[in-house]
What we know:
Layout: E1 3-7, H1 11-17, H2 22-32, E2 35-39, E3 42-46, H3 49-67, H4 74-85, H5 89-97, E4 102-103, E5 108-109, H6 114-125, E6 128-132, H7 139-152, E7 158-163, H8 179-197, H9 200-208, E8 212-216, E9 228-232, H10 240-247, E10 255-260, H11 274-282, E11 288-292, H12 302-315
Parallel strand pairs: 6-10, 6-11, 7-8, 7-9, 9-10
Antiparallel strand pairs: 1-3, 2-3, 4-5
Amino acid sequence: MPSKTLHFPSPRHLHSLYGGHEENLLHAERMLGVKLVTREDWLKIEAPAAPLELTESLFDFLNAARSQGMAIRTPDFHRITDTFARGEGSQLRALLDEPLVIATNRKKIVPKTLGQKLYLQSMLAHPVVFGIGPAGTGKTYLAMAAAVSALLNNEIERIILTRPAVEAGETLGFLPGDLREKILPYLRPLYDALHDMLDTEDVARLTEKGVIEIAPLAYMRGRTLSKAFIVLDEAQNTTPEQMMMFLTRLGEDSRMVVTGDITQIDLPRSKTSGLLEVRHILADIPGIDFHTFSGADVVRHPLVAQMIEAYDRYRNPIAGENGSEEKR
């Protein structure tokens, strides 16, 4: 039986290519029709010529993805392996041909998962993008990074960041302060992300000049937003009427990104989420793209992905992960 041994800089380097779990290598063996043996910093492939070459290509791809800063988790490894097994590896390789780095004043932001890279590519290619998925996938952070980068590159003239002011179990009327002080906590996560990408002085200056605007969704009504990058966060808490109002604000030379988690809807039970509805209405319109994140794209503590999956199974034990999109 033909064989080939691949060598890597260290055992840790090799482990990172298959998520560090031996069962992932068993999955690759089943899908590719090969035998894999690993010790320390090497991986031996035993197989006929064609499967051997395919497996070597798989690990070359995983190594290249790692070098671009992507973290390969078990779901990533399975998805990538299955793609190579179907003979579609060339489509994945195209993702690595042009490394994506979003430059802001304070840091360079690199997508950490394939899902994040596809999301960034979608934002570059489509005027309107919906990023839908669980907490910790970077859907809002990456959208804001793309907005800041577009502003710094003079592709747009202003950034508009907005959220619906909907209570998540708290009551807005009982919070202390005037209307602005009551609304500020809902917008704080957007300010925090912005300060992560721009100097504090720049944020203050650009906000004062109106180049960066952070406001509740209600403030968007009646406006036409031209030459702007507009991000609607927490869109699962919009009503269908609010979603339509927001989307029709799109003006000349503008881009929109709408983000939300359809498992975290805080609207009253009697109201439908605009984010749940919009996919059925706009899915076939050219220039509009829907990107769905999964637990594989969670880049917070590893336990976060496990908790999301556990809640998913609890809420929808029959349909499983794929059925969660239709649940409230």
